[in-house]
Specification:
Elements: E1 7-16, E2 19-23, E3 29-33, E4 46-53, E5 59-62, E6 73-81, E7 85-88, E8 96-99, E9 112-119, E10 125-128, E11 147-155, E12 159-164, E13 168-173, E14 186-194, E15 200-203, H1 209-225, E16 229-230, H2 238-245, H3 249-261, E17 265-268, E18 271-274
Antiparallel strand pairs: 1-2, 1-4, 2-3, 4-5, 6-7, 6-9, 7-8, 9-10, 11-12, 11-14, 12-13, 14-15, 16-18, 17-18
Helix pairs in contact: 1-3
Length: 279
C-alpha cells in the first residue's frame, strides 16, 4: 500500500512539461517534478520514489533518497533552528523538522542528533529524539548468533546501548568492544544472547567458530594485499593485532592455527607467509 514517508514503486500514468504523474493508489495521482525524472522514462514505466508532503501539504514524489524513512532511526546533521524547532539534513531538498517537544538535551546548528522518523497528526514528516517512545518494549524474539543491524545510541557504564533493527534496545558490553564506537554509528552485529528478561546482549563479530572462520579469510586477504607476507604472528602485541585485524589476540591465534593446519600459511619467527599454492 502506498504511504507517505516511505519508498514506493509506482506506475507513470501521465506526462506533462513540468513532470510526471504517478498512480499512488489511495493518495491519488502524485507529481514527480521534472528535475527528478530519470532520463528516458515513459508512461507505463514503474519508478521507485519517496513520497512526502510539499509546502502546501500535498503529496509529492522524489527520486532523492533520504537517510531514513518512517519507522527508522538515523543520525542526522542539524542545519538550522527556527521558531518551531530544529531542521535536519536528511538527503532531501526539504529539511526535516525536529520539533522542540521532540528534542532531548541541547540541539544546536552544526551538531548531530539520533532521531526516529515519524508522521505527525497531519501526515507531515518529523523527527523525534524520544527513542523509548518508539522502541518495542515487549520481549523480542531473537536467537543466538542471529545477524542484526545496529545503530549506536549512547555509551553507558556497562557498554554501548544500540538500537537493534530499528525496533529494540540491545547492549554491547565493554568487554566485547574491540574498536572505537560513536553515537549514531550504523554497523552490523550479532545477538550474543537473549536474557530471561528479554534484554539483548550484542557483539560485533559472529560468535564462536564462525568468527574464527571469518577472520581466517580476513587474514588471507590482508596477506594477498601485502604481497604474501605480514610482520605479525601469534607473538605480536595484542594492541597491534587489534589495530590491524580488529580482533583479540586469542581469536587471532585461533585463526592462525586453522590456517596453519590447512597449510594455507607458514609461521615464521617474525611474521606469517602465504602459501600461494594452497591459499
Amino acid at each position: 500500500m502506498t504511504s507517505i514517508g516511505t519508498f514506493n514503486t509506482l506506475p507513470v500514468v501521465k506526462e506533462r512539461a513540468f513532470g510526471l504523474y504517478l498512480d499512488a493508489g489511495p493518495l491519488g495521482e502524485v507529481l514527480l517534478p521534472q528535475r527528478y525524472v530519470p532520463a528516458g522514462t515513459q508512461v507505463g514505466d514503474q519508478l521507485e520514489v519517496f513520497i512526502y508532503l510539499d509546502s502546501e501539504d500535498c503529496p509529492i514524489a522524489t527520486t532523492e533518497r533520504p537517510a531514513a524513512q518512517v519507522g527508522e532511526f538515523a543520525y542526522l546533521p542539524v542545519v538550522s533552528k527556527g521558531p518551531v524547532g530544529a531542521f535536519l539534513g536528511w538527503g532531501l531538498s526539504k529539511d526535516l523538522l525536529l520539533p522542540f517537544a521532540e528534542q532531548k538535551g541541547r540541539v544546536e546548528a552544526g551538531g548531530h542528533c539520533l532521531v526516529r522518523i515519524y508522521l505527525d497528526n497531519s501526515n507531515r514528516l518529523a523527527a523525534s529524539m524520544r527513542w523509548n517512545r518508539y522502541l518495542d518494549q515487549t520481549p523480542p524474539r531473537y536467537h543466538a548468533h542471529q545477524p542484526v543491524d545496529l545503530i549506536i545510541a549512547q555509551r553507558t557504564e556497562l557498554g554501548y546501548k544500540a538500537i537493534v533493527n530499528h525496533r529494540h534496545w540491545g547492549l554491547i558490553h565493554h568487554s566485547d568492544v574491540q574498536r572505537p564506537l560513536h553515537t549514531g554509528q550504523s554497523l552490523s552485529g550479532y545477538i550474543k544472547r537473549q536474557r530471561p528478561d528479554g534484554k539483548l546482549d550484542l557483539v560485533l563479530r559472529q560468535p564462536g567458530f564462525a568468527e574464527v572462520k571469518q577472520l581466517t579469510e580476513t587474514i588471507i586477504e590482508a596477506l594477498e594485499e601485502a604481497g604474501g607476507y605480514l610482520p605479525c604472528n601469534d607473538r605480536s602485541d595484542p594492541a597491534e593485532i587489534r589495530q590491524r585485524f580488529d580482533t583479540s589476540k586469542k581469536q587471532f591465534k585461533s585463526a592462525l592455527g586453522v590456517l596453519y593446519r590447512q597449510r594455507r600459511i607458514s609461521l615464521e619467527s617474525d611474521g606469517i607467509r602465504l602459501n600461494p599454492d594452497l591459499s
